[in-house]
Design goal:
The structure is a homodimer. By secondary structure, chain A is mainly α. Chain A contains 6 helices and 3 strands. In chain A, strands 1-3-2 form a 3-stranded antiparallel β-sheet. Chain A is globular. The termini of chain A are far apart. Chains A and B meet through helix 1, helix 2, helix 5 and helix 6 of A and helix 1, helix 2, helix 5 and helix 6 of B. Chain A binds a DNA duplex through helix 3 and helix 4.
DNA sequence: ACGGATACTTACCAAAAGGTGCATACTTGA
DNA sequence: TCAAGTATGCACCTTTTGGTAAGTATCCGT
């Protein structure tokens, strides 16, 4: 009976909600690679250089439970599993594109600011 | 003389770079409120409900060092400082809008997924 | 002179995120 | 039979992040 959709106190704005889904050290990279098509676990691991098994699995599970990616187990004899974007995931990746663009345009400024901060710690 | 802008190993993609700037528990909220115009420290603190002085200052400093917000000290007698978005900051907030939209459209799904995860811990 | 407001700063702690490495169960190839 | 590859799980530890609470310096109203 209360106001529910008018003023949801959970998130301050849509962006805030979105960030809960895409933040995590490896998620943007995973999404980036999955956007190219379904990818097997091992292949993904080799693509996302530097990620550990624990992290890769963990982030994939979160993305899966958020309905962003889909895990497919082919039940085949030498273990075979792959991951792909759901339609929901594809819509997210689309919405991310302007941020990708902004990041690309200002990559150098961002990197410089990061260095400055790291240096002054 | 090496390849520098062709294959920068720093970020895997633009989005990755952008996330370095906007991630932080209070940053999206701060940006959200600053988008409405210059805001004094105390006012901002009252707007961003629940934030502590330490966090608010820290995130403002990071946003400032990234060139996203501008701090203005009026040097007036009862202390007076305000924060506003720089043009760079405004361009960022613009690029964030699609993500805001996506978040708004799917707020309920996102919240539901968060609850599911929290419940199963 | 005292309490409250302004805009911070600092020290200390707890919680969350992330990393390392070993273990599993099954298979294929040497 | 042994090593290597497949896709995970688990325990332990460090780093990063965020929270609490206090202190600072200046000013104003009473």
């Amino acid at each position: 009976m209360a106001k529910e959709n008018s003023e949801n106190p959970r998130f301050i704005c849509g962006l805030h909600a979105t960030l809960h889904v895409i933040s995590g050290k490896w998620k943007p990279l995973i999404l980036f690679f999955l956007n190219k098509g379904p990818t097997r676990y091992g292949e993904l691991k080799r693509s996302v250089r530097g990620v550990s098994d624990k992290m890769l699995i963990q982030q994939l599970k979160e993305l899966e439970s958020d309905g962003i990616v889909q895990r497919t187990d082919y039940g085949e004899i030498p273990l075979r599993v792959d991951y792909s974007l759901t339609p929901f995931g594809r819509s997210l990746v689309q919405a991310m594109e302007p941020l990708c663009g902004w990041g690309e345009e200002h990559e150098e400024d961002i990197a410089a600011a990061m260095d400055r901060r790291k240096a002054s710690r």
